[in-house]
Description:
Bound molecules: zinc ion
Structural class: alpha+beta
Shape: elongated
Largest sheet: 6 strands, mixed
Number of helices: 2
Distance between the termini: 67 Å
Number of domains: 2
Strand content: 35-45%
Number of strands: 9
Order of helices and strands: EEHEHEEEEEE
Amino acid sequence: MKLSIEIKHSDGKDKLHLIDPTEAVQEFAVSAFFGYCREMNGEGTLVIQRERPKPDEKNTPRPEWYETGIKFKNGIPHYRTRYWCPNPNCNHSGNQYIGLHDKTTECHECYTVMEVNPATREVDENGIPKRDRFGNFFRAEKLAGVTVS
Ligand SMILES: [Zn+2]
């Protein structure tokens, strides 16, 4: 088992950074570090940062639609649509999944209805837009029903 301890001196504060220790080792290291700080600096602010191991990405597979950009709802494909809410009081952005012939989508936060456009100018033989480099089939950022002159 590996334990690394990083001690930083910055702004007059000592920082202890423990990487992947067990709880028991943390307790030991923290109390030892307290002793060290007292000796070196006397009483002072001590910042202790405990780092949780990051979840292993391989063990938590992403859902298939994360890669494909296509979610099936009742067997019907819905395509990833990136939206930027045009409501100035909202400005939320996110993903929606829409049917191929849907003309609008709505903001998850404020339900503003937006006009949907293909993410790229290219369309495949089935009429499905080619995905942009972020994996979106469609994009939406304008209020639906508003024509720009
Ligand atoms: Zn919104």
